[in-house]
Amino acid sequence: METIGIWIAALLTLGIFSFLYKDNPFYKFCESLFVGISAGYWFVTTFWQVFMPKLADNLVAGRLYYIIGGVFGVLMLLRLFPKIGWLSRWSLALVVGTTAGLYFTRYLVSNGMIQVQNTIIPLYVKGNLSQTIGNLVIVIGTFSGLIYFFFSKEHKGAFGGLAKLGIWFLMLSFGASFGYTVMSRMSLLIGRMDFLLGTWLGLIR
Amino acid sequence: MRREVPLAITAIVGFALIIVYFIPHPPFNHSRDFFEDLFFIIAAFAIWLGCLNLLKVNADKVYRQKKGWLFSVVVWFGFFLMVIVGFWEGRGFMNPGTTFYYLYDKLYYPLNATMFSILAFFVASASYRAFRARNKEATILLIAALFVMLGRVPFGYYLSSWLPEGWRLGNITDWIMDFPQTAAQRAIMIGIALGIVSSSLRVLLGLERTFASGE
Fold it and tell me: Are B50 and B57 in contact (CB under 8 A)?
């Protein structure tokens, strides 16, 4: 069974890789299978990991007010029926309201207050030049980055200069993020090559 | 009714959650958990909605025998294969040794990993076109990306092994990640926080109401 599984996985891997040559029926088959399997995977996962513990178990335990979640959820599914699809906006409204209410405080604290607090650091660390430079970079980088995002004043003069410095910091950050993304994709590619050449063909150990 | 009810639900739930945050005692803190659970339940229904819509679209393709309808049959096959096996397995559906786990390991995982790994090729060709050091900003982006890419692999270590400790590619990468990258990310995060606070307020006060009116 394991050998059959390895062969299936290898053929599917090659099927996806075949797109690098050009679009072809073998790739289309693998792509369609991937779409179907992904949907099925999430369908089952949400059932066992969300509906059962958060809805069914709470109802069984006597917390009947959880039925609200079920009702609003079913309203969401009504979007499939155009005539009564507008009812799905009620559940969407609940999701939007919950998101707005939760994120309002959560982001204000974690992304706002705590980040500001962490940026108020000593600009001179006695006997530690590297930390001093690092702290300066953090304070100047954060401040100039924020200046760049401030669009209520025209980016001219000293203000414009700071905004320009902010762009440089942002570009550096985007470059680093891009490098990280490329490396993560490369590691996935290495993993698939390792599977094909090692696990499947046994050419490398 | 079609517009007012959604706006009322949004405002009541949103403001209730904000008020509850400042009263972290029973029974108010439980209501926060309850609304979070509701959020997850509805989000799960939204995933189901997406899956059912996928089936509907593909069923339509098969029914009308549109071009490539056979691939829609494959979508249906993949979906029901996972669903039938997943429901059959019960709560321990993802335990190693189950049929669902076998399907996950031999079908879902290789397809998923390969699909994302081919992005490496597209990223390479896109960066070849986009990464031209045409101005200062592009040059900074290019240099940072190069340092991070080289600094995280043995080849980068090999290239800079002759340099003194602290000046090698790996050290420079660490410094970039610890200081300039942190600074820029912090500015972005503070900006995001301010943006979320203002857009949340707009939604809760009913100034932003597109979600309640569009189909």
Answer: no
Do A15 and A30 touch, CB atoms closer than 8 A?
A: yes
- Do you know the residue count of chain B? 215
Is residue B2 less than 8 Å (CB to CB) from chain A?
yes
Q: Do B49 and A146 touch (CB under 8 A)?
A: no
Q: Which residues does chain A have within 8 Å of residue B55's beta carbon, measured at their own beta carbons?
A: 39
pLDDT in tens, A108-147: 999 899 999 999 999 999 998 989 999 999 999 999 999 9
- H helices, E strands: number in chain A: 8, 0
Residue B145 sits at the chain A interface (C-beta within 8 Å): yes
Among A19, A98, A175, beta carbon nearest to B141: A175
Segment B162-178 mean pLDDT:
89
Whole-model pTM: value is 0.84
CA dihedral A177, A179, A181, A185 (to 10 degrees): -170
Separation CA A76–CA A88 (nearest Å) = 4
Closest CA relative to residue B188, chosen from A166, A179, A158: A166
Residue B215 confidence (pLDDT) above 60? no
Helices B119-130 and A157-194 meet at what angle, rounded to 10? 150
What's the pLDDT band for B214 if we cut at 50, 70, 90? low
Choose the closest CB to B194 out of A112, A176, A195: A112
Query: Mutate which of B1, B3, B4, B10 to test chain A, going by most A C-beta atoms within 10 A?
Result: B10
- Residue A95, class by beta-carbon neighbours within 10 Å (0-12 exposed, 13-18 middle, 19+ buried)? buried
Estimate to the nearest angstrom the gap between the alpha carbon of B2 and the chain centroid: 31
Residue of chain A with shortest Cα separation from B178? A134
B128 touches chain A (CB under 8 A): no
CA torsion sign for B142, B147, B150, B152 is negative
Mean pLDDT value of segment B85-112:
95
Would an 8 Å CB–CB cutoff place B181 in contact with chain A?
Answer: yes
The gap between the terminal CA atoms of chain B, to the nearest Å, is 15
Tell me the CA distances in angstroms from A191 to A13, B40, B116, one per residue in order.
Answer: 11, 33, 11
SS3 content of chain A, % helix, strand, coil (to 5): 85, 0, 15
